[in-house]
C-alpha cells in the first residue's frame, strides 16, 4: 500500500463555516435549479445532486489546515488546525479510543490556523495515548504551553492525559518515521515555516503551505529545490489571486498560478491547492479554480506551439473530506 | 530572455524577447529597479517579440507598475501577441495596465499626458 492523503481542513487563516444566510440562499438556488431542469419527483433527487459541481453542495469546507497521510503501518498528521477535531473523533474508533494510540503530528509553523484545533483533539486527553509532536523550530513546547493555559483554556498542558513527546526535526535532512521518510524544507512565510517532503516506496508527497513562494526558479530555491522535484503529489498555498499576491507582499501566501507554473516547470504530477481565503465564498473559490483552468489550458497550448517543454499537470482545488492515493 | 533598451526623450523603451518566467523575471526586476534608481519615470514595455509569460512575469510587471506609480511614474505595455494578451485577461491584469496596440500608440499616449498616471482617472 502506498501513501494515502486525506484533507481534514483546507481553509487558511481562520475557521470559516458557511453562515445561515448563505445556506438559505444555497438551498433556495438548488430548489429552483431542481424544478427549472424539469424534475419534480423524489426519485430524481439523487440524479440531480450527482449532476451538481461539488462546490454548489458541500463547498470547500471551513476547517483550517490539517492533513492526514497514512500507509499500511504508519500515520502522520500535518498541522493541528480545526480540521484535527473531526480527525480526533475518527481516531477514537481505533487504539486512541482505548488509550493505546500512538499519534505523530508534524507542525509546519505555529500560526493560529495550524494549531487552534489541538485543544479539541480528543486523543490528547486520554491517558495511555502517546502524542509525538514534531517541528523544525525550537519553540514547540512553549507553543503547547501557551495553547493549554488559563485563562484561554481550562486544561493546563501538564494535566493532559496523553503523554507528549517532542521531536525537533533537522532542516533539510531525512528523518525516518516508521515507513515514511520526512525531510523539511523552508518555505517563504513570515515566522519560519517548513514544508515537508514525505517519501514512501518511491512515491513522494510534498506539503507546501504556508508559502508566498517568492523564490520560484531553481537558482533562488537553492537548497529547498528538492521540495519540488520528483514529486507525485504536492499541496500548495492558493489563498490569493496573482494580483493579491503583489498587493500583499510578505503576507506569506501564494496563488494557484504560481504553484501551477512551478509544477509545469518541474514535472510535478499532481497538485492540490489548499489554504483557501477565509473571506471567500464557495462560489468565489470555484471561480478562482475556473480561472486557473483557463490559465493552465492556455499555457499548455502555448508550450506546445512554442516548444517550451512544460509538463502537463493534474491539479484541483482541494475540498475538506477529500482523500486520494499518492 | 533579452531586454532591448532604447530611449525616446524621457521615455524608456524596453523590448522583451523570448520568455518572461521564473527564470528571467529576476533579470527584468533588476532592469526596472535600475531604471527607477536612475530617475526614469516613463516606461514603455514592448511585447512584440515575447513568446511566453508566466505568473512570475506577471508578478514582476505589476511590482514594477506599483513602484513606478509610487514615484510618480507610469508604465505602458504594447504589442502583446494574442496568447499573451489572453494570459493578461485571465489573470485580471488587463485592467491594471494601459495596454496599446503598437509602440507608436503607447509612446503617443505617454507624450500627451500631463500628469501621467492620475490623468487616466
Ligand atoms: Zn496558515
Ligand atoms: Zn502561516
Structure explained in plain terms:
The complex is a heterodimer of chains A (326) and B (121). By secondary structure, chain A is of the alpha/beta class. Chain A folds into two domains: 271 residues, Metallo-beta-lactamase, Chain A; 38 residues, no CATH class. In chain A, 27% of the residues lie in helices and 22% in strands. In chain A, the strands form two sheets. In chain A, strands 6-5-4-3-2-1-14 form a seven-stranded mixed beta sheet. A seven-stranded mixed beta sheet of chain A has the order 7-8-9-10-11-12-13. Chain A starts with a strand and ends with a strand. With 121 residues, chain B is an alpha/beta fold. Chain B has one domain: 2-Layer Sandwich (Transcription Regulator spoIIAA). The chains are: A alpha/beta (326), B alpha/beta (121). At the A-B interface, helix 5, helix 6, helix 7 and helix 8 of A face helix 2 and helix 3 of B. One zinc ion binds next to loops of chain A. The site of one zinc ion has 8 residues of chain A, from loops.
Summarize the structure.
The complex is a heterodimer of chains A (326) and B (121). Chain A has a seven-stranded mixed sheet. A seven-stranded mixed sheet of chain A has the order 7-8-9-10-11-12-13.
Strand residue percentage of chain A: 15-25%
CATH architecture of the largest domain in chain A: 4-Layer Sandwich
Poorly predicted ranges of chain B (pLDDT <50, ≥5 residues)? none
CATH class type of chain B: Alpha Beta
> How many beta-strand elements of chain A?
14
Work out the helix count of chain B: 4
Strand content of chain B: 25-35%
Terminal residue distance of chain A: 10 Å
**Rg calc of chain A:** 21 Å
The CATH H-level superfamily of chain B is: STAS domain
Number of helices of chain A: 8
How can the largest sheet of chain A be summarized? 7 strands, mixed
Classification by helices and strands of chain A: alpha/beta
Ligand identities: zinc ion
Q: Sheet with the most strands of chain B? A: 5 strands, mixed
Q: Sketch the topology of chain A as an H/E string, one letter per element.
A: EHHEEHEEHEEEEEHEHHEHEE
Number of structural domains of chain A: 2
Shape descriptor of chain A reads globular
Q: What is the average of the pLDDT values of chain B? A: 92
Give the rounded overall mean pLDDT of chain A: 97
CATH class of the largest domain in chain A: Alpha Beta
